[in-house]
Amino acid sequence: MEQPKREIILSGIRPTGNLHLGNFYGALRKFVQIQDAHDCNFFVADLHALTTATDPEALHANVKNVLAEYLAAGIDPEKATIFVQSDIPEISEMYLLLNMHVGIGELMRTAAFKDKARKCLGLSGECDDSDEAFEHQIIGGDTNKRVCAGLLTYPTLMAVDILIQKATKVPVGKDQLQHLELTRRFARRFNSFYHVDLFPEPTDFDFGGAPVKVPGLNGSGKMGKSEGNCIYLIDDPKVIRKKVMRATTDEGPKEPNSPMSEPVANLFTLLELTSTPDVVKHFRDAYADCSIRYGDLKKQLAEDIVAVTTPIRDRITDILANEEYLRKVVRDGAERARARAADTLAEMRQIMGIRPL
Ligand code: TYM
User: Fold this and answer.
1) pLDDT on residue 142
2) Would you state the pLDDT for residue 265?
3) CA 167 to ligand 1: nearest atom
4) Can you point out the beta strands (E) in 53-130?
5) Helix (H) or strand (E) holding 140
6) Catalytic residues
């Protein structure tokens, strides 16, 4: 009897540094949960990393690190296809083709672009759609601080990663949902422009509940490599304890059942991810009746994080020492990913009129 077709899942992480708890809870841990039941494809987005990373040696080392971190977190190359983005040259060609159907305006309005472009230009603070000074800086500003075109077309490349594999489900953290929305828009546009049904419209993988946003340790915002507020999977226990003990808090609740400030709410979010429900309840009750001591909360949180990361850290070290194994994993993965990518690209070329004479 023919097996029912398994849903195609795809997701990637940029090798811009070691992976942190945000990547782990927002992405990696979910990848592991779904690899048994689906056709899973997980890759290292090294071409995307080029939009911000400029040190070739660091990039190369980080590709290996992220691969080792995938495997150490439990992604199994026998179950999922694991590959490096740049090993699939079809992606670069399709990126060129798809870009012909993407508007500069819609790319410029992307929140991630605005945020990263501001950082490139050395501008701070939030901006809105009507920020003319910002647009002016991008187009006519100081050429030493240029915003690279690759940053603008980042969503095209991400759409290509997804569409070239005809993936229908994309497990990502909350920060990537706008890119996924653009991917759907590009797929729809291509299909309707050429009157074809080439690309499915991918959606976020529904794990039930709200999408995860892991906060940083510095009181506000998400944990992020460029924010300096991370706990890395590779951090040793001493470093983790130090980072957690230094996390921002406030002066403590003055009245029973007071609302929580953002820094304290963030610590509770981390506790919810890493601790057991009774530990969380214990500290929530202590907060509610004003008996909480943040030092105790932090000590507990640090130990719970250490318990999560230590086995992963040990495996990362072992896997990194076995280069032959890493090479085999990505060779096999690239072979599988390329086969499907080549088929999609051939269809796309045909549809767009890029055909042999
Ligand atoms: P990247 O490398 O920024 O992050 C990788 C994954 O980790 C998630 N993540 C978080 N989740 C929760 N809380 C956080 N603090 C946090 N920080 C990071 C991200 O949501 C993401 O799922 N554009 C992507 C890489 C990419 C991709 C793709 C993803 C390229 N092509 C195709 C899916 C499909 C990115 O920059 O992820």
Assistant:
1) 65
2) 96
3) 34
4) 81-84
5) helix 132-140
6) 116, 222, 225
Q: What is the pTM of this model?
A: 0.92
The one-letter amino acid at 177: L
On the question of pLDDT at 343 being above 80, the answer is yes
Question: CB within 6 Å of ligand 1 — which residues?
Answer: 10-14, 22-23, 26-27, 45, 48, 158, 161-162, 170, 172-173, 175-176, 179, 212-214, 222-224
pLDDT score of 135 more than 80:
no
- Written as one string, the DSSP assignment of 76-92 is -TTTSEEEEGGG-HHHH
Helices (H), 175-276: 177-194, 237-245, 262-274
Q: Could you tell me which residues come within 8 angstroms of residue 143 by beta carbon, excluding any fewer than 6 positions away?
A: none
Query: Which residue's alpha carbon is at the smallest distance from atom 4 of ligand 1?
Result: 13
The per-residue pLDDT for range 302-324, each reduced to its tens digit, is 999 999 999 999 999 999 999 99
Across the range 246-250, mean pLDDT stands at: 94
Indicate which residue's Cα is closest to atom 5 of ligand 1: 13
Residues 6+ apart with CB under 8 A from 155: 102, 107, 110, 113, 179, 182, 183
256 exposed, middle or buried (CB, 10 Å; 0-12, 13-18, 19+)? Answer: exposed
- Residue nearest atom 33 in ligand 1 by C-alpha distance: 11
Q: Containing H/E element for 42?
A: strand 39-44
Whether 77 has a pLDDT exceeding 80, the answer reads: yes
Q: Among 9, 21, 23, 272, which residue has the most ligand 1 atoms within 8 Å of its CB, making it the best to mutate?
A: 23
Closest CA to 133 of 114, 157, 111, 156: 114
Encoded tokens for 66: 């992220």
